[in-house]
Design goal:
Radius of gyration: 30 Å
Number of helices: 6
Helix content: under 10%
Largest sheet: 9 strands, antiparallel
Strand order of the largest sheet: 14-15-16-17-18-21-22-23-24
Length: 442
């Protein structure tokens, strides 16, 4: 943060840096009660006979803390301003200046405001921007998804290079291959339930997606050896201090009605605490095959605290998605042509056949800058997904009798996944060379 932004909370250390003096001067102390900060600083300056530079806008309306047995002017100023939103600067001559503190607050990620993303990714522990990383990573930003009017993860990945989405599946989740190899998914840089070959695949609604990172080649090692060609990392939206309210609604074919809410703002006077709520609800009468329509419900609250050295985020994603069966037909083996059937109603069984996926996810992340050269990061994620499938489907047509055999099937699965990731990032210079070391575990 630079020389002019010394946190007031750490100013007690100033006392130990006082200039050497005589034994008599060291025995001299100052005590005074709480009072308006301007008056307190003037008393301190008069007591020690040294000038104080004071920014009147910085101290307006503030009350000083009590001073007890201060042994120097620096010690007295540190005690009087302890915990107050001011910054203290001490120049080479020992002159103390009290000025406005620079409050570092959370800003929206560039992926929400720009199609092109150059910043760091949650899949890299080094904290480098994309332009500084010697890696093949494609980022699909929320702004790009908005311009594409993508509504599903399949649509979002349709233009991702080297990615093939498996859309011909009865499962509601999205499975995909990267560079020809089956791949698992990640959420916020941590393994998800789809990493355990869970039937549902990746399921997060796009309303709460900040960006999608397509990791290729060696980057896939982030999630282990089952991602030979690459993987997909879905990054959820984070609270920030910018006040914003986004509400949208739209209608579509087959009675589709969708509404989305994205509310975000600071919730403390210093703008260090912020909160965000993303919610969406969508329902349709039926799909294009006559089965039940898609329903999609999401509630995703989040809280964040950020200052110059600390960034703490906690969030939840609660979702319920229902998908009707994709339509199909039956091939006539004699004519080698499909039977002439209606495509707007189920071939067999009722319209309620389909898939339901219920998602409960909790995320926590803390980034703590301990010194100019050491940063510690800890991340944790809990996922629980319930998957239910019910369907009827043709099994075989008996050649002799023309009887169509029908199979009925259903399954229920529950996946629970807990992931933890901690690491330390060390940066230092030796001459003209800059070094960055990372060590940790997942």
């Amino acid at each position: 943060m630079g020389k002019h932004h010394i946190a007031a909370a750490s100013l007690l250390a100033l006392a130990t840096a006082a200039l050497p003096g005589t034994a008599l001067a060291q025995a001299r102390t100052q005590s005074q009660p709480a009072m308006p900060l301007g008056d307190a600083l003037q008393r301190i300056a008069a007591e020690w006979g040294s000038p104080l530079n004071i920014d009147p806008d910085a101290i307006r309306g503030l009350t000083a803390r009590p001073v007890q047995n201060a042994q120097s002017e620096r010690d007295a100023v540190a005690q009087a301003t302890r915990g107050l939103p001011v910054a203290i600067d001490v120049n080479d001559a020992g002159v103390i200046t009290v000025l406005n503190d620079v409050v570092v607050i959370a800003r929206p990620n560039e992926a929400e405001n720009s199609v092109l993303v150059r910043g760091s990714t949650s899949s890299s522990r080094f904290g480098q921007s994309l332009r500084d990383q010697p890696r093949n990573t494609q980022v699909i930003s929320a702004k790009l998804l908005e311009r594409q009017q993508a509504q599903t993860l399949s649509e979002a990945l349709s233009n991702a290079g080297g990615v093939v989405v498996n859309s011909a599946t009865v499962q509601g989740g999205v499975s995909f291959t990267v560079r020809g190899f089956d791949s698992n998914g990640a959420v916020n840089g941590l393994p998800s339930s789809s990493s355990a070959m869970f039937a549902a695949g990746s399921t997060l609604p796009l309303a709460n997606v900040e960006r999608i990172e397509v990791l290729k080649g060696p980057d896939a090692i982030l999630l282990g050896g089952d991602n030979l060609g690459g993987t997909i990392n879905i990054v959820t939206k984070k609270p920030n201090a910018e006040e914003r309210l986004y509400v949208s609604s739209d209608v579509g074919s087959f009675g589709l009605i969708r509404g989305t809410l994205d509310a975000n703002r600071a919730i403390s006077g210093d703008h260090r605490f912020s909160a965000r709520i993303v919610a969406t609800a969508a329902t349709a009468d039926r799909n294009f095959g006559g089965y039940r329509g898609t329903e999609d419900y999401l509630f995703a609250p989040g809280l964040r605290y950020k200052n110059g050295s600390t960034d703490i985020i906690v969030s939840a994603t609660l979702g319920n998605q229902i998908f009707g069966m994709p339509p199909y037909t039956v091939l006539n083996t004699a004519t080698r042509k499909p039977f002439d059937v209606a495509f707007d109603r189920p071939l067999v069984g009722g319209k309620d056949q389909g898939v339901q996926i219920e998602t409960t996810q909790f995320n926590a992340e803390i980034t703590q800058k301990l010194t100019d050269w050491l940063t510690v990061v800890g991340r944790a994620q809990h996922q629980k997904i319930n998957f239910a499938l019910a369907q009827y489907s043709p099994f075989v047509v008996l050649d002799n009798s023309g009887v169509l055999l029908i199979s009925t099937g259903g399954t229920r699965q529950t996946s629970k996944n807990d992931a933890f990731d901690t690491f330390a990032r060390i940066t230092f210079d030796t001459g003209p060379l800059s070094h960055k070391l990372v060590g940790g575990m997942t």
